From TrEMBL:
This is chorismate mutase. Signal peptide: none annotated. InterPro entries: Chorismate_mutase_AroH, RutC-like_sf. It holds the Pfam family CM_1.
Length: 122
């Protein structure tokens, strides 16, 4: 087993609690589905949001998944770079897997597809 990173990002329409939590939930669901993950595979998750999203901690959405309440989570605000994609949530999951780097499915949803079109399969 190796520890690999799985990237994901999405955008939401508004700085509202429901949008942030729903966006995070949909992103994690897609990452889980595309990589056949369960909570026991995950060693930690880093979550970042752009500075314009402060209505909720996205980690709340992840903790609500069955079995994910013990996975270490960390929320942070991204560096406010001029021209950055607004209202963006990013996840970096550290997972134990037998997959090679090229077998990992990174997930980019909504406007976040623009961030890494080379990795965006969703």
């Amino acid at each position: 087993m190796l520890n690999r990173g799985i990237r994901g990002a999405t955008t939401v329409l508004a700085n509202e609690e429901a949008d942030i939590l729903n966006g995070t939930e949909k992103l994690l669901e897609q990452i889980i589905a595309e990589n056949n993950l369960n909570a026991e595979d995950v060693t930690s998750v880093w979550i970042t949001v752009t500075p314009d999203l402060d209505a909720a901690f996205p980690a709340r959405a992840i903790r609500a998944f069955d079995g994910w309440d013990l996975v270490p989570l960390m929320c942070a605000t991204e560096i406010p770079v001029q021209g950055a994609l607004p209202k963006c949530i990013r996840l970096l999951l550290h997972v134990n897997t037998t997959k090679s780097q090229s077998e990992i499915n990174h997930v980019y949803l909504n406007e976040a597809r623009k961030l890494r079109p080379d990795l965006s399969k969703s």
